[in-house]
Amino acid sequence: MSEEFLGQALIYLGAAVISVPIAKRFGLGSVLGYLVAGMIIGPFGMNLGGGRDVMHFAEFGVVLMLFLIGLELQPNLLWRMRVPILGLGCSQVLVSAFLISALVFMIGSLPWQSSLVIGMVLALSSTAITLQMLNEKGLLNTDGGQNSFAVLLFQDIAIIPMLALFPLLAIYPVVDTDPQHTTLVEGLPAWEHTLIVLGTVAFIIVAGRFIVGHIFRIIAKTRLREIFTAAALLLVIGITLLMTVVGLSPALGTFLAGVVLANSEYRHELEADIEPFKGILLGLFFISVGASIDFGMISGMPITVTGLVAALIMVKLCALLILGRYFGMALDQNILFSMSLAQGGEFGFVLFAFAESSGVLTPAITDLLVAVVALSMACAPLMMIVNERLIQPRFGSLGNDKRKADDIDRKRDVIIVGFGDFGNIVGRLLKASGVEATLLDLDSDNVDLLRKLGFNVFYGDASRLDLLRAAGAEHAKALVIAIRDPDEIHGLVETCKKNFPHLKILSRASARTDAYDLLDQGVTLVYRDSFDTALRLGTDALCELGFRQHHAYRCAQIFRKHDEEYLRELAKMRHDKTTYLNQSRRRIRDLEEILLEERSVIDEQRDVGWDTDSMIHEARLKAEDKGKA
Amino acid sequence: MEPYISGKTLILFAHPALQKSRVNKVLATAVRDHSAVTFHDLYEEYPDYHIDIAREQELLEAHDVIVFQHPVFWYSIPSLLKEWLDQVFEHGWAYGREGNALAGKTLLSVMTTGAREDAYLGGEKSHTIRELMAPIEAMASLCGMVYPPPFVVHGAHLMTAETMEKHAADYLRVIDAISLGCIDFAKAKSLPRLNMDLDNLIAKPSKQP
């Protein structure tokens, strides 16, 4: 590994680690933190590195983000969003493009071709910034958030015809085409191109539906976590390349793959695996946007640049507000929707470069416009803060409570870890009582079978914090631990106690000593594997020996209560007295103590409400008194 | 006997299906957080009918007024409350030569019935609530406890939310009056139910002893 690479990583990670917590601390959101970090370390700040290369690399973060969003969105929900995607999305692109083109044409007095291209590119908004902000503030599931998402999705589709259109509008001599942009389909007739595109989309859907699941099942069987992660990344990178080859947006392709896999049992595991990569790359992307802002040029013509940024934001904002109103959004949601989309997008960087090489725009203009787009992106978090602090309070809500119950993913109240013989009894009892649980299991065959039976089972290693989070541990009320291995249980409890202190933990314990350990960890609801079964067997044995059923049952009840209390007592005591004893001697000693204690306990227990001895005794005394009298 | 009874109240609440309850839920909500009340939900504490006798006796000893709050099932108390009585009211503790732990305390029944009051008018075809609760009254008397007429809410099946609230307010009024010592149970002696004439039984604040 080259030292240069490590040095760069050091600078980027260092900038993120320092600036993001500060931005968060002041309630400014992570995006602004990253952008500022980028400005500071960029070529126009301290000049520590950065620039376009990093940005191209980091754009992969956007691809990963759309994959994750796809995973959260089941196909039928996507279908339900068709009206906002096609109606609102299409009209946003058309109206904004028209307004901006017209203004550029009239005021900027550029040729109409150039004006049209500028209008189209600036009509796009930043998927990365908008979605990250909405997600971070928990606004993605509000009406405004959903509509923003729909518009962004349409914009991703709209890029394809734009790329096709630009070369037709050329007015300057064509510069050498960037070899990166050559694709397999270039030069093919339109119908073949369309066929290939449709074929690719169909391939992703069919493969995701029928093949990928089997592959993941085989990989899951190896029980090697890193191989699963590698497979997940492989999937996303594969789709990205495939999409690039046929000239489609990679983000769109991975989004589609995510939607197809949203019903899969590997969903939570995939989410957990991809999430950290997405987070880091997206952060890197924001930093590189910050770094690319050309302060030299801005200080050269400050009035032009700020004027253009303000004009861009205002035009987009007005267009969005009018459309939002036309599509029937409530005012507070409409403002959220419009404010979140009123900026230029990261695709602008690529498209302007492409337009320049296609001979529609001159380098002087693209440089200026790239600076405007980058600055408008930097303004986006500020606008969200204005919306959140100054505008939304007037409406008395941030729309959080308007979340529809079945939007995206209904989080469940209970998570059951381990769905073998033990967990399955717990899960079935809950289900029979009308409580649906999220189930996690590591046995891929088992997961497969149970899903066929209609259980909400996911494959995954529950000792991982990220997987627990993906399974909804933050919103759940209770966690049922039904796995056997004491060390795994110990780790899981530790993770939960630290990260989800609100979760009520109910844990299985194989042996008495495991129960002690759990009690030590502060878990109060501990269930020993064999305890209840053995008690039932013992009760039946008493009955076979001639005890009356109810008597035997009461004996077992008394025994159970005593044993549970004694278990807790011994769990505390063992630390004071027996630290010097080794494990096996301690077990024997404990057992001795328990047996001695128990011998008397059933006798002592007062079931005397039914006991007439004392009454007979007293009746006798009375009779004797009468006799004496 | 001192006509005004005051002190700490222990409510023994017995409802096996509270999730389906209409009236008892409203009544319980009205009093459960009262500062002078210990609210003891029996079906919640002892789903397996395995009653902790020592703990229950301690609770009883620490309170002056004991309330049995329950719906009427088959003209009687719910089975867990009967089990509780069988187990907790021990010979030698509650009654018998040396049993006087409950002597001087007050036992008040608070009941709901599904049917209307005209199903409990007595005579040839029916029994009054007081007749039906004779076993409880007899038990209270054997243990040396005062047993005033029960607080009865009739007609729970078809009760409107408004009426429920009115009964809940009456219940709270009684519990409040007990804590302040301004309810005269002796005056109620011949009433079919306590909540018939609360204005007359509960002294105005100025007349408080």
Describe this structure in words.
The complex is a heterodimer of chains A (629) and B (209). With 629 residues, chain A is mainly alpha-helical. Chain A has two domains: 53-397, Up-down Bundle (Na+/H+ antiporter like fold), CATH 1.20.1530.20; 414-616, NAD(P)-binding Rossmann-like Domain (Rossmann fold, 3-Layer(aba) Sandwich). Helix content of chain A is 70%, strand content 4%. Chain A contains 27 helices and six strands. Chain A has a six-stranded parallel β-sheet with strand order 3-2-1-4-5-6, with helices on both faces. The longest helix of chain A is centred in the N-terminal third of the chain and has 32 residues, at 190-221. Chain A is elongated and about 130 Å long. The termini of chain A are far apart. With 209 residues, chain B is of the alpha/beta class. Chain B has a five-stranded parallel β-sheet with strand order 2-1-3-4-5. In chain B, helix 1 (23-31) links the parallel strand 1 (9-13) and strand 2. In chain B, helix 1 packs parallel to helix 7 (161-180). Chain B is globular. Classes of the chains: A mainly alpha (629), B alpha/beta (209). Chain A binds chain B through residues 554, 557-558, 561, 606-610, 614-615, 618, 621, and chain B through 48, 50, 53-54, 86-92, 96-97.
